[in-house]
Amino acid sequence: MPAPATDIPAGTAMADYHEAILDRFREAGALLEGHFLLSSGRHSPVYLQCALLLQHPDLAGDLCGRLARAFADDRVATVLAPAIGGIVVAHEVARALGVRAVFAEREKGRMTLRRGFALARGERVLLVEDVVTTGGSLREVQQLAEEAGAEVVAVAALVDRTGGTDPGFGGMPLTALVRVEAPTYVPEDCPQCREGLPLVKPGSRNI
Ligand SMILES: [Zn+2]
Question: Given this model, what pLDDT does residue 207 score?
């Protein structure tokens, strides 16, 4: 599959290119609209899989670069993400800011810095993720950074799918490139089931 184009003019305000960015997700197959069975067993009219967008390095670099611009004046020293979804985002945002990228991963159920990664006391840290739904992983990583004495200066994601609920970063706002409304339903309450739309399991061969 050819990589989607990255022809959104640089410097365009985020709100103005929201739909154009969503089109890049759609072209990459990273945003599907229909009737989907999620791994949780719930149904959703929207399926989002950022990895399908981030597999294209030019596109990943372009979109993460746009997100990074929001933090150009924040004197960020390190970009920190929860594994796995946030790793590529952290890497590309850090490249745009000219700083380093590290990631936290679960060890015995707890978000941990492994592989020799460390944060210094007072280090200015930008937290990033691919998609924020409940914000749980990012909250854990925020706590990890604060316990290390680092200063979390902002929280960002490519996609905000919180539906407007507070992700609970201690009053720190979530900055996102795009917002996606993606309700989920138990099968009994699913409007698409009621309409008789065929249910698709994402990743299966028929999509
Ligand atoms: Zn359904």
Answer: 41
